[in-house]
Amino acid sequence: MELKKKILGLIEHDAKLNPKTIAVMLDEDETVVRETLKLLEKESYILGYNTIINWEKFGEDGVTAMIEVKVAPEREVGFHNVADRICRFPEVRSVYLMSGTYDLSVVVCGKTMKDISKFVSQKLSTLDQVQSTVTHFILKTYKQENFIFEEPEEDKRLVVSP
Amino acid sequence: MNTMDKYISTVVKSVPPSGIRKFFDLVTQTKGVISLGVGEPDFVTPWHIREECFYSLEKGYTMYTSNHGLLELREEIAAYMKRSIGVEYEPQDEVLVTVGVSEAVDLALRTLLEPGDEVLVPEPSFVAYGAGSSLAYGKPVSVPTFAADEYRLKPEHLEKCITPKSKILILAYPNNPTGGIMDREDLEALTDIIIKNDLIVISDEIYSELTYDNKHISIASLPGMKDRTVLLNGFSKAFAMTGWRIGYACGHPDIIGAMTKIHQYTIMCAPIMGQKAAIEALRNGDTERKKMLESYNCRRKIILSGLKEIGLECFEPRGAFYCFPSIDSSGMNSEDFCEKLLVEEQVAVVPGNAFGSIGEGFIRCCYAASINNIENAIEKMGNFLTRHRSV
Q1: Segments forming the whole domain that contains residue A110
Q2: pTM to 2 decimals?
Q3: Are residues A63 and A13 in the same domain?
């Protein structure tokens, strides 16, 4: 279990670390690391690998919205069924159950604002359990998953020093 | 232009310019360099420490402090000394805040040396001790340390260099440039010699928080050694605060008092902004410090395994963020090796002889660089070696 955690700790913020490097960092055998990684994927500890991209650089940034959803919980299953249904829409990026004034926070991506309003009015609001929605459009991303979207800071150190 | 050389003091003239300086000029003329030649962390000072400095400025802390440094900081330093190395210092008169450890080294040497006194400097070593001794009218005496001993200072090598003029022993562990450390038994093996010969130890422990297997042991914590030791430390390496220039000296009140005398006439006090930031570092900096240490450790392993793969022999450094591989197998001397590597592969490492002649045949590689840069640099060094070995 310790090794699994250590490997996950290393690749959490850098999925590109290769098994050989991980093995060196952890004083482990490369084959062991490879097999552990496979196992972590198989047992769904690792669900996938994303890339954080600054699409704005292409000038085609698309639209992302965070939608507050109020939901009527159902007997025995609570929020589970409706959350599960919302998850299945391909335009939905993430779904969180929240404390506070609303129940689910749904992150939705689309090409245009129209795409998103269509999704909200036709798919999300029409679900029986959904009581109301409030849609917030993201205007600019400054930081996502630990990465700051400004140009990376250059190494300002002297190249050689004692 | 008229030469003004005759006006320069003979002492200053006698001190050779830093070997690193020469190499630095060469590196700055080269484009696209991957540098393993730096001597500082690759982290920016943790945000909470920087933020504390902004806050202090907003609050108007822009004035002189006591010559000794802010009492609040000295109290934090004393508490830190107690918890980290188990030695108690009185914040009032046994702690002095300086402009980096460099100032503290200079103060200690000037405070203790009579003209002609000898300073024992284990080499390879950081560049300041020998030059600082000469500038204080002392005479630096190199004490060799060897890769085979993992660069520990061995009593037999120390004893051979002691003369009736010997007054100071410099100990700088964890060591720059080798990454060597001194364990308790290594230090214990020296104390009898130190006491018998009535030496004072200047112990530069700036890398004390960067050890990878064993916790750092200070010679000041050994029986009979506290009064004989001027302990120097600072914030540059542990908290990634090199540019803030905050260091400190701890020791016997007589010595600290005398050092303070020079400090008050030459420096007055360390900048208050840095002192305020340093208080925050000692109070709340442990989490970030440990994260940085872990990250150095990962990279230490990567560079060691890389050096091994390309056939450069290197003992496993247990402290600081340097390794010091032998380049014997290349058939080149240190300076040729570094210059050619820079020109042909745009990789900067520092020639070992910049740290004393005993460093000839070695190079210093700093692994406070990104994993990507370390791996690229190793690959390029590998290509370089293959090309030159086959010639």
Answers
A1: 55-142
A2: 0.91
A3: no
